[in-house]
Amino acid sequence: MSRAVEMTILSAENLQMNRRPVRGNTFVTVQSDASSETSATRVDSEGGSYPSWNEKVVMDVPLHARFITVEVRCKTSSSGSNSVGVARIPVSDFIGGYVPENQLHFLSYRLWDGKVRRNGVINISVRVKVVEHSCNANSSMPVTGVPVAANGSTGVVRGVPALWLNYQTNI
Amino acid sequence: MGNCFSEVAAGRAAIGGTAGDFRNPAGAPNDAVENFLRSRGHHGLFSQIELSFSASGLRDRDVLFKSNPMMVLYTRGKNGALQELRRTEVVPNSSSPTWITKHTLIYHFEVVQVLVFRVYDVDTQFHNVDVKMLELEEQQFLGEATCVLSQIITQPNQSLTIDLHTEDSIISTSTLAKNSGKLSVHAEECVSSKTSVEMAFRCSDLEYKDLFSRNDPFLLISKVAEGGAQIPICKTEVIRNDLNPIWKSVFVNIQQVGSKDSPLIIECYNFNSNGKHDLMGKVEKSLAELENIHNNGQGENLFLPSAGGQSHNNKVLKSQLFVDKFTESVQYTFLDYLVGGFELNFMVAVDFTASNGNPRLPDSLHYIDPSGRPNAYQKAIVEVGEVLQFYDSDKRFPTWGFGARPIDGPVSHCFNLNGSSHYCEVEGIQGIMMAYTSALHNVSLAGPTLFGPVISTAALIASQSVANGQRKYFVLLIITDGVVTDLQETKEAIVKASDLPLSILIVGVGGADFKEMEVLDADKGERLESSYGRVASRDIVQFVPFREVQSGEFSVVQALLAELPSQFLTYVRSRNIQPSL
């Protein structure tokens, strides 16, 4: 079981590499901690250290996922790419609380480089597509559990699907 | 060398009405005007309002003749003095005139703009006199009405009808005073400022300007001012080494141009890093003509002006300009959202920590002066409240206190000021003042100074409003005498709230050193960051220390409010929320 999350990678600010502003050719990869599926944006070649992508990424995020990892990478002159910075986005920042899930959230996060130094900020917007409970026609048992984060939580989703067995049979 | 490169890069970037500028949260129609107004002390939102006037049921001159009414518009300053703004024409022989004369004024969100209207009956013997020369004392006074500009613009149809009344000193009998008629004022925002045009240009077959180096073309769009001077409006980015360049869209505000039929000059230059760009060709077209070029899909030939300046000697080039995109869009203003059903909801939180001093002693910041002179807390509540109350239809304001022990309880960092355990709302500004004074008698001041609980409570109300699909934007006023103890918790609460329809105004009273509070106000430093790396997605906090001595007409609290419209607009525009017009 998973839910579709529509994430728009908007822009990043003040990106650096080796303490110098990034020259450009940056792109973003998105992955949740509970799935190996990775999405990537196009390469921005104009924005330099203030790139903007405005690109929508739709991904299936498993219900038990706790984080979505967003990584800014920079294309090298050879075909490879280097990591510029990583941000881990707690799923509880846009699921749970009092605001309905399908509300559009605008979120910004600090990026950290490989040596865990602060490196720029990434801006995204997120909308959770409303879950259709009976998406599996064979399963008559509805899946009830939805992660719930209490207000003022430390950013970790505390809930797990209430019917764990049910969840597993649905995979 | 590095410097040099960056300058060139800056020079190559598109300037003026580009996408970034189009999203300018202040929605300022014109930077120059904005700067001018700022230099004159007018901060914040710039919005021109045209007022039109009519009246009905005016008193007749006598049995045979109706009166010949003229209306005089005044504004009342903070000191109560009236300043005349405009006189209308005289409408002969009418008891329900509609005046043609309009008055345009600038709307300031953060100021209570009091308007006074006086209607006079002008005797026929004066009808050949210019209205500006008329001595008002010689005319028959028909009545007076007063209102606040924000009352007019928050009406659903932006029209307000008010009763005219006469002072007893002029008309002694009360029966006549009742019969003075009504005045209607209609407000309209000057529309042209809202419409902007997005155009995407490309050129084909540009001619080599310089055989030995590359040609890096860009477009410069200018308007022609009276007298023939060219005023640049915007330019595209520089495309490197391309004789068939395709540029990104540019945005032109119709008010910047004048109208859709005003001539524009579109020049194509070869970018030169020394600043002396070479003209590769130009066209002169109005927006309407550019729209035609777009609709036909046909290119327009560029020309090079002749040295002599005569237009028939212009050299027509084979290079062509195309308009790939031409879309007009209306950018909604703050007033559109107010008329379109949005409300601003005011919330107050008052600091009851012990550092304010014993409220019974005159040196306390909470001291209630028996002479009625308001203390700093009361002043701040009234100054912010009297501006915001007009935007809140039910005028019920959630009001909290923090940092004190309510009767028989432990220290609370968010308690209802009205003493209720169930509801936090009070009625009107008067209700806030009453709840505040009664709370002073019922709680004992304590500490420390925590903002987190109050901000979280306000954020909860805001998120519930979003969940219910309400069109509300919340403004939390926190008045405090000291530096917060829970700086990190406050930051976390603010970062979370930055995604909600909420702005926070913090007013610091007393003589404490508020330097640490400035970090909460993102204007003055970095964006706020929570402990796990989430960053505030927009600036929602304004902080000012409230000085006892206020300079002139423009108080610090008004400066505080001035940013609210742009914070509101950033919220609704980023979410593509439209006013329901």
From TrEMBL, chain A:
InterPro entries: C2_dom, C2_domain_sf, C2_SRC2/BAP. One of its GO terms (biological process) is defense response. Transmembrane segments: none annotated. It comes from the Eukaryota. Pfam families: C2. Gene3D superfamilies: C2 domain. CDD domains: C2_SRC2_like. Residues 1-105 form the C2 domain. This is C2 domain-containing protein. It comes from Cajanus cajan (Pigeon pea).
UniProtKB/TrEMBL annotation, chain B:
Keywords: Calcium, Cell membrane, Lipoprotein, Membrane, Metal-binding, Plant defense, Repeat. GO terms for cellular component: plasma membrane. Signal peptide: none annotated. One of its GO terms (biological process) is cellular response to calcium ion. Pfam families: C2, Copine. It comes from the Eukaryota. This is Copine-1. It comes from Cajanus cajan (Pigeon pea).
